[in-house]
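*** Protein under study ***
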Amino acid sequence: MPEQPLHIAIIPDGNRRWAKARGLLAWNGHEKAIQNFRDISDFCRRDPRIGTLTVWCFSTENWKRDPAEVSKLMGLLETFIRRERSHIDKYKTRLLHSGRRDRLPPTLITLMDEVCATSKDYTDFTLHLAIDYGGKDEIIRAINKQQATSNGTSAVWDENTIRANLDHPELPDIDLIVRSSGEIRTSNFFLWQSTYAEWKFFDKYFPDFTVEDLKAAVDDFAKRTRRFGS
């Protein structure tokens, strides 16, 4: 058992390629991926080694995609959160959102705000959704937030200053990042919080990703020695 519960993050890549290979529409891949979220989040809730699960649902760059696909995906995310509410209460799960709010559909923002507010005191597990999220964008927003509160005075910036202005400074840094679809790159994913994260890459597309795959990644992580530069 780790000294503190692990923070696991997933980049669920390959949904559109999975759909294309089967002659399906792009959002059919997203539908199948979201079906996986329930099984994976339930596994993480049950595993005493894991305290936080972060899932990258939509990046700041994903707005370049076809508007119809983006609209469908936003609807799928809203449906997922509505269906997940009973699990969130049953398993004392805190829901958090990282990313920009100004470009997301108002109905999605309202729903997330409601569920985040009603679950804010739960401590058994944290489900952290990154929607309209980019690592560079978060750091820029953190700098702007700090400047807006400094009233024009000069200040010494350090790591604590930056962290305090991130979307969720209370979360521990990410321990393990899992990426599907065979892509081997960081892609602007939680640049600050992943400084010492371990990475595990899978060749399969995320709709084919299983709980057994995630368990294997966590088991492998448990065997690693982390030195943090020492």
About this structure: Residues 6-135+173-222 form a domain with the Undecaprenyl pyrophosphate synthetase fold (CATH 3.40.1180.10). The radius of gyration is 18 Å. The beta strands are 6-11, 50-59, 93-98, 125-133, 176-179, 198-201. The chain has one domain: 6-135+173-222.
